[in-house]
Amino acid sequence: MSEQSPQPRRLADRLFGAVTPAPAPRPVVPGPEAPPSVRRAAVLVAVEGAGFVALALLLLWLTFAGEPDSVPRALAEVVLAGLVAAVLGAGAAGLWRLAGWARGPVVAVQIFLGLSGFVAAFQAGRPEIGLPILALVAGVLYLLMTPEARLAYLDR
User: Fold this and answer.
1) What is the pTM of this model?
2) Is 10 left (phi over 0), alpha (psi -120 to 50) or beta?
């Protein structure tokens, strides 16, 4: 059996310390499973997000096909609809994964959508637009306020 002599340390190792070996990989811990009411709310929020994507595309088409009074204002409406679609899409994905950050923005957007649906249905005289919005908002808020949904976020 031959004994190996220790290797001389490099100057950089003596000055700054040697490189540490890579740590062992962390075990994958599965997150808590979202209850059915939160999953249903995520699906409804995704439907709302898809509706805003369709609205943004429609507004973009109307901007370029028609003659808007103000092109910058029309493009700002397209961007706003796209941003709301992005927030709703991210919120739907977060709800599906039971992310703690997702519930607040989704509820805030639902409040604004509820106000818009109320104005469209009752003050603007367009119930064919406002009532479906109000139904989706009521469904999402109900599903997020069920006891199992509240407990799922309380246990986090």
Assistant:
1) 0.78
2) beta
Give the angle subtended at the CA of 149 by the CAs of 145 and 151, to the nearest 5°.
Answer: 110
Block residue for tokens 């003659």 = 67
The answer for 68, left when phi > 0, alpha when psi is -120 to 50, beta otherwise, is beta
pLDDT band, very low/low/confident/very high, at 18 (cuts 50, 70, 90): confident
Cβ atoms of 138 and 74 within 8 Å: the answer is no
Nearest to 36 by CA among 109, 111, 95: 95
Q: What mean pLDDT, rounded, does the chain reach?
A: 90
Provide the sign of the torsion angle of the four alpha carbons 31, 36, 37, 42, taken in this order: positive
The b/e string for 26-49 (b: 16+ C-beta within 10 A; e otherwise) is: eeeeeeeebbebbebbbbbbbebb
What is residue 98's predicted lDDT score, i.e. its pLDDT? 93
Contact between 44 and 144 (Cβ < 8 Å): no
Q: Is the pLDDT of residue 34 over 70?
A: yes
Mean pLDDT of 7-13: 72
Cα separation, 8 vs 93, in Å, equals: 54
